[in-house]
Structures are given as structure tokens and as C-alpha cells.
Design brief:
The chain is α+β, with helices and mostly antiparallel strands. About 35% of the residues lie in helices and about 10% in strands. It has a three-stranded antiparallel sheet. Strands 1-5 form a two-stranded antiparallel ribbon.
């Protein structure tokens, strides 16, 4: 059984992720090895949650731009890494060590922190239009 780091999950609501990105993130979390490595193609991950190739590509780009998903520098095919703050680990000791190491690497600039979009004001919430009665003609 893996132990899930939850440091990044507390801010997911602020990341302004699309439904497709949330679904793809869920597939990545499900397929990860201890430490957050995921060996699957983008098409496989997208198909797992019912996304087209284009939708999976757009969703993955969003996850990468928020630094939830990290790619190896050599852009190795079929390899993704979940940010240490949301990855799973084999033991509590591994989790604590990885979080401590990630915090140091973020501070030194070696690892990007999970980033939320910066808004001067929050985007407006979608407003539903109230129903109103219409008189029948005649």
C-alpha cells in the first residue's frame, strides 16, 4: 500500500484545473510507482479516463504548466513524474524524506513549486440563469 503525500492536494482548488486535467491527474496518481514515476503514454492515460488524444494533450500541458507533472529533462517517451508534494511513497519515512528533499530543492531553484495562476481578481464564477415563466401566446 502506498502512502499519498497531501501537501499539494490542499491547493488543488486554487489551480484552476479543467475537468479533463483533474481526470488525467487521477489516472496518473493511480498508475504511479512509489516516488511518483508514471510509465504510460499520454494516449493510454487519456483513454483510461475517456479523453481524446487532443483533450489528453491539452490536459497534460495544463498539468505540466502547474508543475503537478514533471517531465525528465531528456523528455523520455512514456515517462512522467508527479511532483513530490502529490506523489505516493512506500513508507512514512520515504514520504518525509521526499518532502524534506523537495522543499530544499524548491528553495534552491532546482525543482519548481506547484504553481497556481496569478489573478489580480478571481475569475468570475459561472452564473446560472434563473428560470422565469413565459406567458403562452394567444
Amino acid at each position: 500500500m502506498l502512502i499519498q503525500a497531501s501537501a499539494g492536494f490542499g491547493m488543488l482548488y486554487r489551480l484552476d484545473l479543467t475537468k479533463a486535467a483533474m481526470e488525467l491527474l487521477s489516472a496518473l496518481i493511480e498508475r504511479q510507482e512509489p516516488g511518483g514515476e508514471v510509465n504510460a503514454s499520454q494516449a493510454e492515460l487519456g483513454a483510461r479516463v475517456g479523453l481524446s488524444r487532443n483533450s489528453a494533450n491539452t490536459a497534460m500541458s495544463l498539468l505540466e504548466s502547474r508543475h503537478l507533472v514533471l517531465r525528465p529533462k531528456d523528455r523520455k517517451y512514456r515517462t512522467y513524474y508527479l511532483h513530490p508534494y502529490i506523489a505516493s511513497y512506500a513508507s512514512q519515512d520515504e514520504l518525509e524524506e521526499a518532502i524534506e528533499d523537495a522543499a530544499e530543492r524548491i528553495e534552491s531553484g532546482e525543482l519548481p513549486d506547484i504553481t497556481a495562476p496569478l489573478y489580480e481578481t478571481a475569475p468570475p464564477k459561472r452564473q446560472s440563469q434563473p428560470l422565469r415563466a413565459v406567458r403562452a401566446a394567444g
